[in-house]
Design goal:
By secondary structure, this protein is α+β, with helices and mostly antiparallel strands. The chain starts with about 30 loop residues before the first helix and ends in a 6-residue tail after the last strand. Helix 1 crosses helix 7 and helix 2 crosses helix 4. The longest helix is centred in the N-terminal third of the chain and has 23 residues. Strands 4, 5, 8, 9, 10, 11, 12, 13 and 14 form a nine-stranded antiparallel beta sheet that branches.
């Protein structure tokens, strides 16, 4: 290819190669802008998790920081794949960055991820691989801090995938959407690292992205009110002198709820179901196999139902099991329950509790 004066232009020069005088080099995005964009995307992810699941601990891949700090919860959490529209939102994020070079946060901050040889968006596959490679950046966060001293402001993932993050609101189009390749109007590196003008819809897209970011921040960090599950304790009808020595128990009924900006969501993750906890003194740690039993009935004794759970760890002192979702269905506003332990077929005295109509859940 030649320029207007007939001089050849090498489009394969690396970004740091010498350039003819008067031709500006690429403007790499600052570390602050990259962090700002990541935080905005993280806020959108947290807001989406709240709206979909009522649980902001659900993490969305490919949005904001790729890998969260260590210290995952010991119990399984709701997965982002449990919501079709959340999965669609994640896919949209990948497509946006892969073929436009931006996510909503990057669009608002005015930065774009492009290839370091052609300054074009890198496509779906490379975008996915780049996100996965952020695991290297997450080690002691050294990779995420690397743009502070790297000449091209690159993370380790950027270096491996040959990408740069430019400070531009006019990223060049993906090669699929360009007819005829580079041109005199948009010659590409090293003469031009951004498009001569953005699409006419870019301003509207930026405004929509800003609204999404504001909404994400509001639903993530705005004032909230909520309530937790109803936890009821049972009382022993008589002392248990058996091998385990049942001392008490609790029943957790209902879901965690939270309200932000007038929107109320009920958590669907751990803790959202009906759970029963048995507690014992473990007078003998050699109790062998035993059964934990929870029995329910209406206040008048009708509608009885029973749930048994096999266990073997008598030294644990307590254990919690999740009951079926329909455990209390049909029992009405007033019901009772009893928790017992069976060892070698012998049932302990019961730990009994009740819920009356004046204390609904």
């Amino acid at each position: 290819m030649t320029n207007e004066g007939g001089q050849p232009v090498d489009l394969n020069l690396p970004p740091d190669a010498a350039r003819p005088l008067g031709i500006p080099g690429p403007f790499f995005a600052s570390w602050g802008k990259r962090v700002g964009a990541s935080l905005l995307d993280d806020a959108i992810a947290a807001g989406a998790a709240f709206l979909a699941f009522g649980d902001q601990s659900v993490t969305l891949p490919f949005v904001g920081t790729a890998f969260q700090p260590t210290g995952a919860p010991a119990v399984p959490t709701t997965s982002w794949t449990d919501s079709g529209w959340v999965m669609s939102a994640v896919l949209m994020m990948i497509v946006m960055q892969g073929y436009l070079g931006v996510t909503p946060g990057k669009l608002v901050m005015g930065i774009a991820v492009v290839g370091d040889h052609d300054a074009r968006p890198i496509g779906f596959v490379r975008t996915t691989l780049r996100w996965l490679l952020h695991i290297l950046d997450s080690i002691l966060f050294i990779g995420y801090l690397r743009p502070l001293w790297n000449a091209q402001h690159k993370t380790f993932a950027d270096s491996i995938m040959a990408t740069v993050v430019l400070d531009t609101r006019r990223p060049r189009r993906h090669r699929w959407f360009v007819t005829g390749g580079d041109s005199l109007v948009d010659p590409g590196p090293p003469r031009s690292w951004e498009a001569p003008s953005g699409p006419r819809w870019w301003t509207a897209a930026t405004a929509i992205a800003a609204v999404a970011c504001v909404g994400g921040v509001a639903f993530s960090f705005g004032p909230a009110s909520g309530s937790g599950p109803l936890v009821i304790s049972c009382g022993m009808t008589a002392p248990d002198n058996g091998p385990l020595g049942l001392t008490g128990g609790t029943l957790s009924v209902g879901n965690m709820t939270a309200t932000r900006l007038g929107v109320t969501r009920r958590a669907t993750g751990p803790g959202a179901k009906i759970t029963a906890t048995w507690e014992w003194s473990a007078l003998s740690s050699d109790s062998g196999d035993f059964t934990l039993r929870a029995s329910f009935s209406r206040a008048d004794g009708t509608g009885a139902r029973r749930y048994d759970f096999a266990s073997t760890d008598g030294a644990a002192a307590q254990v919690t099991f999740t009951l079926p979702d329909d455990t209390l269905t049909g029992l009405g506003d007033s019901w009772t329950w009893t928790q017992t332990i069976l060892v070698d077929g012998v049932e302990s005295p019961g730990c009994t509790g009740s819920l009356s109509a004046d204390r609904p859940f």
